Structure formats: C-alpha cells, structure tokens
Amino acid sequence: MLSKCLNPACSEPFRYLSEGRVFSLEIPPLGGTRGSVPAQRVERYWLCGNCAKHLKVVIENGEVTTRPLRREFIGERKVAAARASHGHAIH
Length: 91
Ligand SMILES: [Zn+2]
What we know:
By secondary structure, the chain is an alpha+beta fold. The protein has one domain (1-27, 40-91). The protein is 21% helix and 29% strand. The chain has helices spanning 49-52, 72-86; strands spanning 21-27, 41-47, 55-60, 63-68. The chain has a two-stranded antiparallel sheet with strand order 1-2. Strands 3-4 form a two-stranded antiparallel sheet. A hairpin with a 2-residue loop joins strand 3 and strand 4. The radius of gyration is 14 Å and the shape is elongated. The protein binds zinc ion (ZN).
C-alpha cells in the first residue's frame, strides 16, 4: 500500500521513507467470528510531505481514511512512538 500518497486527492508517488510520513495501522479483522478468529494485520500507509503536514491516517468504521491534523505536534509524537516500537519492521 506504499505505492502512492494515501490522500486520494494527491497523486504523489511513493519515493523514500525519509519523505512524508509512514503510518502503521492495525487493521481490525472483518467478518464474523464464527470458527477461527481472524488475525489482526498491520498495514503501512504513506502520506507525502505536503499531505503529512495537515493530514493523518486513521481507521474509521473499519476503513482506512485520512483526517485533518488539528495538533500536528501530537501526531508527530505518536508517529515517533510507533517508529520506536516498530522501526525495525519498516523497510
Ligand atoms: Zn500527498
């Protein structure tokens, strides 16, 4: 899912992890829970530098979408924490 900026209004192609911002999101399992319990999966999404300045990636009603950043510094702290715990998994 890192082929381009997640913002549908933006067509910036993905280039480098150092540009923009990568979001690691845990996707809630879909469907019923009869029988086996589906495993939660982690997907990574990318916003280009311009979009990351005013957007963040969230899961809303089970769908990945972008939301406006109200307090950017809080978003940055969250991403920093996510990178600290999952940094080795981001390539
Ligand atoms: Zn963008």
